[in-house]
Amino acid sequence: KPKVWVLGNGQLGAMLTHAGEPLAIEVHAVNIMTPTDEILPLAPHDIITAEREQWPESALSLQLSSHPHFVNGPVFSRLADRFSQKSLLEQLNVPTAPWVLVDDTTQVATLYQDYGPRVLMKRRTGGYDGKGQHWLKQAEAGDIPHDWRNLAIAEQAINFDEEISLVGVRTRAGECVFYPLTLNLHQDGILMASIAPLTRLNHLQTQAETMLSAIIHELDYVGVMAMECFRVGDKLLVNELAPRVHNSGHWTQAGTHMDQFQLHLRALCGVTIPQPQVNFQCVMVNLIAIEHDPRWLSLPNAELYWYNKEVRPGRKVGHLNLSVPNMTVFENSITALQAWMPAQYQAPLAWILAELT
Ligand code: ATP
Ligand code: MG
Ligand code: MG
After folding, report:
1. Domains in the chain and their CATH numbers?
2. What is the pLDDT of residues 202-249, one digit of tens each?
3. Ligand 1 mutation pick, 190, 230, 239, 284, max ligand atoms within 8 A of CB
4. Contact 146/177 with Cβ under 8 angstroms?
């Protein structure tokens, strides 16, 4: 029986491993971030995937990424570079925030002229959780720092109504299955909370599915991909794509009968994929730079995923999935979290209550 090897052994790799167990799919999440001379006992029929878009080159990462069954191999570098990712969206006529490559000739005045008084520069590679971003503000006479030239794109600041994402899967046969849209709240560039499904987003589902379908078919992609969007009125603009299981899909662990991790493994291993059933509306709260609180486990509608990582500023150390069996149970849990959690959670918790009550 083929094994699945994952480039990366963070929380996504751990949750993929966990999802493999009931399917009797043996998953090994591999640490490719710390240098080692180790080589793995890969079999020719094994399957390789990744929990991240980029990794350092080493004998180990090369062994995995050069395996003939490294699924979506060429996609990673194509999407990990914002220049080629944005170019792909443009080529497919998928709407995205207006952008340009920042090179030696880029003039900041032209950026303000084309995009308005606020322009967001993003590093072409390596950015996550809002890291690797730099705002240019005309009012502050911001200029392009020397060390951002040729390494970044510049985007128009989008005055969006809200952020939503679509998580979907494509099988080896080219069939696509999607979850309902997720509503996301970011704070300082980092995902704080997600809600799904929401009936008020239903009218955007087909639009989003058409966009992500075009992308994954073009890439001949197999497995789960996430598409982050800005909603501007009734129109969606793609913010970015993630060729992997995604934080905004974590609610599927509590809300559906088949979560995104299982969906990804099924696609990789050629197992049938029915449309996942949604059993509950769910809220996901990311635990960021916060110590473990045993009281979380007392909430009747909560599932805690604790990543067992050292707590550091801005670092995701776990998430809570709260299902909505009824409004009383749900509101009681949110009220408890409001009392237990520090200041930076008050806005996300209020946002959740405002959306659901
Ligand atoms: P992730 O952890 O999701 O991979 P990232 O570091 O790759 O994040 P983005 O998703 O591109 O970065 O941006 C992070 C957040 O910054 C977005 O979710 C959004 O809130 C805000 N943002 C990004 N681009 C724009 C834009 N063009 N206009 C306004 N806000 C933006
Ligand atoms: Mg990103
Ligand atoms: Mg993002």
Report:
1. 4-70 (3.40.50.20), 98-156 (3.30.1490.20), 162-356 (3.30.470.20)
2. 999 999 999 999 999 999 999 999 999 999 999 999 999 999 999 999
3. 239
4. no
